[in-house]
Amino acid sequence: MIVSTRPLRRRLTTLLAVAGAVIAAGATVFATGTHSASAAACNGYVGLTYDDGPTGSTSQLLNALRSNGVRATMFNVGQNVAGNPGMTQQQVSAGMWVANHSYTHAHLTQQSQSQMQSELSRTQDAIRNATGQTPRLFRPPYGETNGTLRGVESSLGLTEVLWDVDSQDWNGASTAAIVQAAGRLQNGQVILMHDGIQNTINAIPQIMQNLTSRNLCPGMISPQTGRAVAPDGGTQPTGGPTSPQPTNGGGGSCTATIVPGTVWGDRYNTTVNVSGSSAWIVTVTLTSPQQISTTWNANFTWSASNVATVRPNGSGNSFGFTTMMNGNSGARPSVSCRTS
Ligand SMILES: [Zn+2]
After folding, report:
1. C-alpha of residue 313 to centroid of ligand 1, in Å
2. Has residue 144 been placed in a domain?
3. Which of 56, 192, 212, 256 would be a feasible disulfide site paired with 335, CB 3.0-4.6 Å?
4. d(Cα 195, Cα 256) in Å, to the nearest integer?
């Protein structure tokens, strides 16, 4: 994010010679065992993200990620991609997801709509030329966004992704502090880190130890929800309370996705994010004897004691509720979405 001011170009030239050797050495190491870390039980997924690449140390970052069985999302700066398309392809070859972080790392909210359009579309082109893939995720530099920018993102089929946890690696955080920040990640959440920082690379083994100990696995960021999901994008966390069901209706289609919230001894919170049509109707089904005690940001009506029909109340496309367990602590709700 703020690290764009670092002299990347100079670092690039000095490190390029080293990079080739690292890739060549890494390629054989990577061939086996990269899935062992994620073969353990995944009770949830988190999104590890690295911004501002590719840089002169991208190959070192990829080496560390692959040798720890990690897949991550790389928010690339378009001009860096154009300057080193081969390294961008290396990101994809290493199993990473490539995403858009503007072309010049500009303060986009200070720009006109046409300038924003240029920043984003040129980056789409650069990444497509380098990898054959068209990004579907966009992170605005410095996290600065507004309605105009979101409109441009939407016109390019891009989903805006900010972060839940800031590692502060751009601000000189120690390796231990970066590991500690990752320790705060919960299911579905995303952490901000950066390409080109040694402490960040050094943190990877300990981050994975921490996540594994909590049965969390690195996942992809869903273009539908902007939340971390299983790497194949189609599987929700085991035991997770989600069942997104896109439905085609007269008002378009919608998808409802559950984000688990705080759990107490006798109750738990649930957030539901709806994407697609704004004319949505979400059905929430509980397992009896669980009952919803509190709701927010939508209108709930009840067709049975354990089945709620939820409609927008003008508070946007995200709502939530508290469920009393009533002795059943294991069950979680399911949701489906249709349009009115
Ligand atoms: Zn950045």
Report:
1. 36
2. yes
3. 256
4. 33
The confidence score (pLDDT) of residue 40 equals: 56
> Binning pLDDT at 50, 70 and 90, where does residue 27 land?
very low
* φ/ψ of residue 221, rounded to 5: -100, 120
Which are the contacts of 22, defined by CB distance < 8 A and separation ≥ 6?
Answer: 59, 60, 63
Of the listed ranges 146-150, 152-156, 229-233, 306-310, the one predicted with least confidence: 306-310
Tell me the percentage of the chain whose pLDDT exceeds 90.
56
Active-site hit among 52, 101, 194, 195: 194
pLDDT of residue 318: 87
First vs last C-alpha separation in the chain = 41
Task: Give the pLDDT confidence of 247-290 residue by residue, as tens digits.
Answer: 333 467 878 888 777 676 778 778 888 888 888 788 887 778 78
Q: Is 194 a catalytic residue?
A: yes
- 53 C-alpha vs ligand 1 centroid, how far in Å? 9
Domain that holds residue 96: 2-229
The H-or-E segment that residue 296 falls in is strand 291-296
| Contacts of the segment 259-264: beta carbons below 8 A, 24+ positions apart | 259/187, 259/188, 259/227, 260/44, 260/186, 260/187, 260/188, 260/332, 261/320
- Dist. CA 221 → ligand 1 center (Å): 17
Check whether residue 224 and residue 104 sit in a common domain. Answer: yes
CA 101 to ligand 1 centroid distance, Å: 7
Q: What distance lies between CA 161 and its chain's CA centroid?
A: 6
Between these two residues, 25 and 43, which has the higher pLDDT value? 43
Number of domains forming the structure of the chain: 2
Amino acid in position 190: V
